[in-house]
Structures are given as structure tokens and as C-alpha cells.
Amino acid sequence: MLPHKQIELKLQSAVREILPDADVSAVLVRPCDPKFGDYQSNALMSLAKTRKMNPRQLAENVLAKLDVSDICEKVEIAGAGFLNFRLKNSVLAQTLESAACGEHLFFEKTSQPKTVVVDFSSPNVAKPMHVGHIRSTILGDSLACVLKKLGHNVIRDNHIGDWGTQFGYILIVWKDFLKNAPTALKRYLDSDPITTMGTFYQYGRIAGQINDYEDLEGSDWVQSTSEEQDKKARAELVKLQSGDPETLAIWREMIALSQKQFDEIYSRLGVKFNVTLGESFYNNRLTPLIEELLEKKIARESEGAIAIFFDDNPQLKEHPALIRKSDGGFNYAATDLATLDYRISGEILRHPQVMAELGKIDGPVNEIIYVTDGRQQLHFQQIFTAFQKWQTTKAESGKRKAETKFAHVWFGSILGEDGKPLKTRSKKIRIGDLLSSNWRQFFAPNVSRAIEIEHLHNQDGTFFVDLRDQIVDWDELCERTFKTPYGDFIKLKDLQDDKGNRLSIPPSPASLQLAGLLNEAEERAFKIVSEKNPELPETQRKEIARVVGIGAVKYADLLPNRQSDYIFSWDKMLALQGNTAPYLLYAYARIKSIFRKAESGKRKAEIVLAATEEIALAKHLLNFGLTLEAVAEEYRPNFLCNYLFELAGKFTGFYENCPVLKSEGAVRDSRLALCDLTARVLKLGLETLGIETVEQM
């Protein structure tokens, strides 16, 4: 058992002797400022306050019953009733030795595992995953990893948006193509299905007729009124809801095409889910849900719609939750209530995918965590409050007894360096996206022959098509001069097709799509790695760049207080100095290089702690588990980021002041063991944040 746990148990026992009726579950010890000790407890002050006792006197009474002499130096009472504990060096060394032998890595799995559902990422079908999805995906994944490391049963659920009116608009155009230009439809879907579906949606809202199926972007669309298009979309949605075979088949293809994109992104991020249960999964539960809420008078009709009112809740009194619209359509709130019921009832535990991956899980779902942006705070306040009212009626009828904790883990926005939300600040595009959306021929002033932009090349001879993975600024690109195969020089901004249309920017700028952002991260990291280590083989440099680039994006997102906005800066996140992923990855790689240089040395050795820097590093290693617990309790992965940054700093202090390879005998073996433990904690900590490591940078 780790030292802080031993202190905690003995302290709780002493408190029970003095206060037999006390709830000692909150009597804990936590790391503190080193000038006071290694651990501290302030629990006695709250116990004294509730009993109107003198807190310092209570501390003295408890201390008289407390014997931790086998673990700590003399325990000190500070201030109004703090208890400060300082570990004996022998206990510190023994704990490190047991970790070196593989008995633990400074954390223990819980003795009371919970079953937790983590709902995160949740992209929309038929739309590209954009930069806004990164926070939910990365935060949710890291929280799920921490909870699993601590021994809890974790179910990762990706609640994708696969239902709604938007599919009606896409169906209008899709069916038009199926009828009139099936070959063109196949070409578009094979080339870029997500952009194609996005374009279908845009035109489905306004277009009554397509004049040129072979030139989707350049076609002269005959506009229709929004009322006409809305009517058509609703008709398609009715077909979808009623199970029309053709409509269902198209909808399922939309999901399959979108899921392929999702899976590519998740694979690059190393993110996995146990289940992907979209909104459509809950469709057949919505009508019975509405009927039950009406019957129990939790919901009522208002102007033809059905809503849940919160008359007894001052914060929500002016904010009813609409669950069914006046036209009979169900709102998000209804789906979210049905989703909660499915999870809390335990049905999710019996889902075939969950059982196949996690086995049989006994007991209820203890906690449900939603990871979304801060704009949904009101929505989840409504959902949780409404569900608790509904659950109370179930408990009264004997249908449900277990209490489940709901947590809305919300986060702020990602800002550009100009302080504006990232989605509104940039016109950067991926050249490949530009090529795929401008495949027709163009003409330029004073050039007699047609031009295909993939045949253009830079003045240095590089062909435009060879730059397809580059991310560039759209305005700068339009001003750039290119050479045609015929020797003419033109600017992209001057190009027009035979109808007078200029080059079009892709509907979703690549830098704002998640795939484009990850591409740019790897490209920038590759440039840095190549500058630092040009002698490494290209394949190795690319692999290092992949790990560093993706890791940098993840770490930059996890490092800030999640409820704060943060500024997205390539220079800062890829820096080798400061609190960044590259710095931590380099710290890990540097330790691994020590062992490549060491011809001999034991990693499982007797630990000798003499130097101040050795002791500081050893004590920080002991706090790894407490940090993981704090992340799980407060849903804040930034605690782990800061812990790892401090660990790397303490290792640097140790390495600079305590020779490792130049020392001898037991001291050398002890210091190599400290190096190994630091590397193992760095690696596991980074992996818990979803960041891979490399042994050479």
C-alpha cells in the first residue's frame, strides 16, 4: 500500500476513536507545499466546525491517538488545525524499490470500481469533422483513459448526429442525381463524399433544378423558394421515418461514408469507442417517453408543442425544455432523455458490443459524463433536472432505485492568435481540396489554350498537383504566379471557366477540418524534426513527426483549464521548451538515450536517496496516483499535464546535479533506477493523455 494511503487509514481510525459518529470518508491527505511537509490534511477543521469544536484542540486529540511513526517523521499541527506529514527517507526509498520491481507505478486501482459512461466527440453524419470536435474528442478520451487506469468500468459512447431535417435536403439532391446522373453521383462520392454531401445539403435548401450534373460546383442552379424546398425535405424525412426502402438505403450509405471519415480521424488520434449509438437508435423510444412524461405530469402541452416546465426551479423557470414541436417532430431534449434512460436502465451494459469488449458488468451505471462545449450548459441543466424528476417517479413506483451521478464536463473555445474563434479567422485550404473541387478547365487573359490547374507548376518547376497535401492561405495562393505547360505565366485569381466562374474555395477550409489540422501538425513537426536531425532516415523522421505533431495538438488542448478559451498557436505547441508535448517527449527520449549509452546497470536496485534533487524527484514520483485521482474527481486532465511538466523539470534538476553514467556502484544503479521510474511514469502519463512516445527525437 502506498504511504499516503497508509497515513489516510491510520488518520481515519484515530478520528473514529475521538468522533465515533464522524463520516471519515472525507478525511484524506493530499500533497502540499514542501516547506510544510509531503502531505497535509485539513479535514479536521470541517469536522470541528460542524460540531462547534475548537479545530486545533480536535487536531491535538486526534494526534494523541495517531501513530504513523513507522512512515513519517514527527507529525506537526499548523494553523487552525492542519496536520502536516513528512515521509521518512527509508519509506520513500522502499516505495520506489517496490515500483522498480513492478509491484505498482505509484497508483493503485480502486477497491470500489464504478461503471461510467463517457459520452464524447459526437460528430454529425454528412458533415466533415472540424476543429470544434477536437476538444470533446481529446478531453473525453483522456478522461476515459484515466478512469480505466484507476480500475473503473468505462463505456465510451459516440452519440453521433444521424437523424434530423438536414437529411431531407440531402436526399432531394441525391435522388435527383440517382435519377438523372448516377455516374456523376458515383464519381463525386468516390472522390470526396463528405464535401459532396455538404454541397448537396447547401443546394437542397435552395435549388429546384440542376442544369449541369457533370459540373456540380459550376452548375447554374435554378433556385426554388425556401418554402418549396422545406416542403420537399419534410416529404423525404417522412419517407425516411416510415422506412421507405430506397430512402433508408441512401441514408445508410450516408452513415457508412461518414463513419469511414470518422474512423480515419479516430485512428490518427488513437481514439476508440465501445459503442456508436446515434440519435436514430432511440427513435422508437420517443413516443412512449412523451406519453409517460405527459401521464406523470412532468411535461405538458403548450401552443401545440410538448415541453417540460420547471416551475419549482428558479434557475430554469423561464427556460422550459421543448421535447416535441408543434409539427410533431421530436427535439434533441427528447432524444437525450431517452438516451439517459437507456443508459441508466442498464440496457447499455447488455449491448452486444459492450459485452464483447468489456464482458458482463454487474450493478448499475454509477456515472454518466457528457463532454461538450460550454454553449450547452443550459441544455444539460434542463435534461438532468427533467430526468431526475422523471426518475423520482420511477423510484416511487419501485422501477428504479439506484442513484446515478450526471456530469456535464464543458469546455471553452479555441481561438486564433487574433483572439477570434478559430472557425472564423482563417481562409487556409489544402491544395488537394482545391484540386478536387475545381477539376474543370480554365482560361486566363492573353492565354489562348485551356488550362487545367493540376498541370500548373511553380517557377521552381514543382508541379501544382505535387503540392496537394500542403496547407496554404487562400488569398496568398490567388496572388501567386504559376507557369503553364505552354510557358505562359498566370495568377490563379485571373482564371475563369467558360461560363465566367472563377476558382472556388472548397466549402469547408481544410485548416478548419480536423483532418487538415492534423495534416498541418505533422507537416510542421516534420520540418522541425528534419532541421534538428537531418541524418535520420525519412521514414523515421515522418514517424517522429506524426507522434510529435498529433501529440502537440492534443497536449495544447488538454493543458489549459478546460473551461477557459485558449489561443491556438503552432509556434507555442511545437516548441521544444516550455510546457508542451515536444518538451515532454524529448524528456522521455533523453532518458531512453541514457540507457542506450549505459553498458551496464540495474533498473531494479536498492534506492539510495542522498542528494536534495534525488529526494525531490522521488517525492514527486509518489504523487502520480494522487494526480490521476484528482483528474478523475474534477474532470481536469490539465492536472496531469502540469504534473508531467513538473516531473520533467525535477528530472532535469536531478540529472544536471547528480551524475548518472559517471557515478559508480550502488549510486549508479540507484540513479539508473530513478531514471527508469521517471521514464515509465512519463510514458504512462502521456499515454493516459492519449499521446504516444518515441525513443529518439
In words, what does this structure look like?
The protein has 697 residues and is α/β, with parallel strands linked by helices. The chain is 49% helix and 10% strand. The protein contains 25 helices and 19 strands. The strands form seven sheets. It has a four-stranded antiparallel β-sheet with strand order 1-2-4-3. A four-stranded parallel β-sheet has the order 6-5-12-13, with helices on both faces. It is flat.
Biggest sheet character: 4 strands, antiparallel
Helix count from the secondary structure assignment: 25
Q: Over all CA atoms, what is the radius of gyration?
A: 30 Å
Query: Uncertain regions: pLDDT < 50 for 5+ in a row?
Result: 507-511
| Overall mean pLDDT | 89
From the spread of the alpha carbons, the general shape counts as flat
Structural class: alpha/beta
How much of the residues is beta strand, in percent? 5-15%
Number of strands: 19
> For the largest beta sheet, what order do the strands appear in spatially?
1-2-4-3
| Helix percentage | 40-55%
N-to-C span: 37 Å
